[in-house]
Amino acid sequence: MKVDVVLGLQWGDEGKGKVVDVLTPHYNIIARFQGGPNAGHSLKFNGKNYVLHTIPSGIFRPGTLNLIGNGVVLDPVIFRNEVKELEASGEDLTGKLQISKKAHLILPTHRILDAASEHAKGKTKIGSTLKGIGPTYMDKTGRNGLRVGDILSPAFMERYNALKEKHEGIIKQYNFEYDITEYEKQWFEGIEYLKRFEIIESEYTLNDFLKKGNGILAEGAQGVMLDVDFGTYPFVTSSNTISAGVCTGLGIAPSRIGNVYGIFKAYCTRVGSGPFPTELFDETGKQLGSIGKEFGATTGRARRCGWLDMVALKYAVMINGVTHLIMMKADVLNSFETIKVAVKYKVNGVETDQFPYECCENIEPIYKEFKGWNCDINSLRDYNSFPKELKEYIEFIEQETGVPVKIISVGPDREETIIR
Ligand code: GDP
Ligand code: IMO
Ligand code: MG
User: Fold this and answer.
1) Which of the chain's ends, N or C, has fewer CB atoms near its CB within 10 Å?
2) DSSP category for residue 178
3) Which residue is closest in CA terms to ligand 2's atom 16?
4) Which residues of 118-138 are buried (b: 16+ CB within 10 A; e: fewer)?
5) Strand pairing of 65-68 and 97-100?
6) At what angle do helices 133-141 and 108-121 cross, to 10 degrees?
7) Over the Cα atoms of the chain, what is R_g?
8) pLDDT tens for each residue of the chain, 420 residues long
9) Using a 6 Å cutoff on CB, does residue 56 contact ligand 1?
10) Pairing mode, if any, of strands 417-419 and 338-347?
11) Own/partner long-range contacts of 364-367 (Cβ < 8 Å, ≥24 apart)
12) What spacing in Å lies between the alpha carbon of 384 and ligand 3's midpoint?
């Protein structure tokens, strides 16, 4: 068996949570491989909405194991709150959730370092979710980090204090005021709480599962354009959000990667700072935001909105080896007379179809216009019943990317999904 992958192809919030929930019945295990509580994955079914940050989006389906992989960074406070909320809504997580020993811990002082660093950057800030993601990955690659498996070690407190002290020294240099007393108390409660879950060597578990013929789905967080190597650096997150991240984030060999499901919105959004070539600052942009309810699932911030960017999308398809495309939120465009797609950029007056190294004041998107379908598609459940304008839009995307659009989402609910 192979590991299939669900990835965001834009700047995050494409609808990964919904799609993973829809695909879960085809798999035995759902595994997160990178990122942490900067993610906010929304699901909707039976009239209820849920948002997950650390827990994989397969958690609501019976009989599925959900695994938090080594590539993830975990905040015990956020994790505990998330589990408690799920339990309060009647979910039984017993035996359904396992955590890699090698996942790194987000310390209270990592969150302060994140805030201090952003504060110091002023106007050039990343617009981080301030969950401590960057500083935690820095300690991981800097070989200072604490891992989930360490909580079982007698030397844990000593190591915690040493790292905290190191952080305090850096925070002092930022001249940044903070108080972690309450959060630290909750953090240690969260550490104790973690111990009731199975803490495992997940690379063995996953490879054993594969050998036995089980299906695994890897759930990405963020999106390709936020990847630390290939995104709009430095306005990115601190992990590899791309398909290659599955190998390092779960301990899976490249030859074991199967289908790569690339998810994109029928338009484009971004939250936080950084380049966004097709961003709209006009009424149309506002309309996309209000119809699409474009507010962050983690921070509540308004998302910036714009037209679909084919240059960025083709780049994302190339980097990830996307085998299947999944188009989300087509319904948001129901009332638009004209829909635009950026097919090329003009960079310093020269046309290109490549995403440039330096983005973005000097970029002018070149748009192709499509006639809108001007009708309500939310209740449609069959591709053949789609309006011709929507089919043309989808077929154009397939032609440009060379990849079939296999799933189309026409609403937030599980049921509002068309599989071709
Ligand atoms: P994720 O981070 O990729 O899981 O995406 P988010 O959950 O942050 O954001 C996607 C938002 O769009 C959520 O509020 C979803 O409920 C919603 N959503 C997902 N698919 C659709 C769709 O096809 N149509 C509409 N209108 N909303 C959708
Ligand atoms: P999901 O998984 C959208 C953005 C932040 C910021 C940048 C760095 O829900 O798609 P970080 O907290 O990682 O230091 O923030 O990345 N960002 C996201 N944007 N969706 C996300 O996750 C994001 N996770 C981080 O807004 O610009
Ligand atoms: Mg999200």
Assistant:
1) C
2) -
3) 237
4) beeeeeeebebbbbbbbbbbe
5) parallel
6) 110
7) 21
8) 899 999 999 999 999 999 999 999 999 999 999 999 999 999 999 999 999 999 999 999 999 999 999 999 999 999 999 999 999 999 989 889 999 999 999 999 999 999 999 999 999 999 999 999 999 999 999 999 999 999 999 999 999 999 999 999 999 999 999 999 999 999 999 999 999 999 999 999 999 999 999 999 999 999 999 999 999 999 999 999 999 999 999 999 999 999 999 999 999 999 999 999 999 999 999 999 999 999 988 888 999 999 999 999 999 999 999 999 999 999 999 999 999 999 999 998 999 999 999 877 789 999 999 999 999 999 999 999 999 999 999 999 999 999 999 999 999 999 999 999
9) no
10) unpaired
11) 365/277, 365/278, 365/307, 365/309, 365/311, 366/342, 367/307, 367/340, 367/341, 367/342, 367/343
12) 30
**282-313: b (≥16 Cβ within 10 Å) or e:** eebbebbbebbebebbbbeeebbbbbbbbbbb
Enumerate residues lining ligand 2, CB below 6 A.
8, 12-13, 38-41, 126-129, 131, 133-134, 221-223, 226, 237, 271-272, 297
For ligand 1, whether the C-beta of 331 sits within 6 Å is yes
The dihedral built from the CA positions of residue 312, 41, 284 and 328, taken in this order, carries a sign that is positive
- Token pair recorded at residue 354: 């490549």
The bound ligand whose nearest atom lies closest to the alpha carbon of 304 is 2
Q: Is 167 a catalytic residue?
A: no
- Best of 16, 18, 413 for a ligand 1 pocket test (most atoms within 8 Å of beta carbon): 18
